[in-house]
Write a structure and sequence with these properties.
This protein is mainly alpha-helical. It has a single domain, classed as Four Helix Bundle (Hemerythrin (Met), subunit A) (Up-down Bundle). About 75% of the residues lie in helices and about 0% in strands. It has six helices and two strands; from the N terminus they run H-H-H-H-H-E-E-H. The chain has a two-stranded antiparallel ribbon with strand order 1-2. Helix 3 runs antiparallel to helix 4, helix 4 packs parallel to helix 6 and helix 5 runs antiparallel to helix 6. The longest helix is centred in the C-terminal third of the chain and has 33 residues.
Length: about 200
């Protein structure tokens, strides 16, 4: 860790991670107030709790970008941060996906594929670490995260604003997240397998 950086700045990335974790119960509580829907064509009136849940999720998801960016830019990455950051991200996203499925705003198999994909990639990264193989994150992983976060916000808000349907755009983002997620998973598997092959 860079000791020349101000103490408050060294602590900021982990504090943003703590903030994201603290947001999870509130996001869950607000999303749980949402109505059960029968499909994308099911119109819903504007809901303060849905809007609040969408905004709070968006704020929490944004901290995932800033804590990593600050840590890398100022050289203040810590072991605790490396452990907590992905854990906080997974807890936030999985919690939201589960509730969206419960409210019939997202197909269960889509949520399962997204969650299983992440578990599989974590397992591959662990195996690669044990084999002293470094698999760096690609732009596909970051793109998947963006689509996934936008999709969750859209399906959480759900309502229509003029001609703009949050539900429709949320579902489109979810489909894009799923495609990119599987694509990036293939890249991870291919990269790991290639490195193993090089080593004979």
């Amino acid at each position: 860790m860079n000791q020349t950086v101000a103490p408050w700045l060294r602590r900021l990335p982990n504090q943003l991670t703590y903030l994201r974790i603290a947001c999870i119960p509130a996001v869950v509580a607000l999303m749980n107030q949402g109505q059960v829907v029968s499909g994308l064509s099911d119109p819903l009136p504007w809901s303060r709790t849905d809007i609040a849940a969408g905004i709070l999720f968006a704020i929490a998801a944004t901290t995932d970008f800033f804590d990593g960016w600050i840590a890398r830019k100022y050289g203040v990455e810590s072991i605790l941060g490396k452990l907590l950051d992905p854990l906080a991200d997974k807890l936030l996203v999985v919690s939201a996906l589960v509730i969206l499925v419960e409210k019939h705003r997202l197909a269960g198999w889509v949520a399962v594929l997204l969650i299983v994909r992440d578990l599989g990639i974590n397992a591959i990264r662990l195996a690669a670490y044990e084999d002293n193989i470094m698999i760096s994150s690609s732009w596909l992983g970051k793109t998947k995260t963006l689509f996934l976060d936008v999709g969750i916000v859209g399906l959480t808000v759900w309502s229509t604003w003029g001609f703009f349907s949050f539900a429709w755009w949320g579902m489109l983002s979810m489909w894009l997240a799923l495609v990119v997620s599987l694509w990036s998973a293939g890249e991870y598997v291919w990269g790991y397998a290639s490195e193993l092959k090089k080593r004979g």
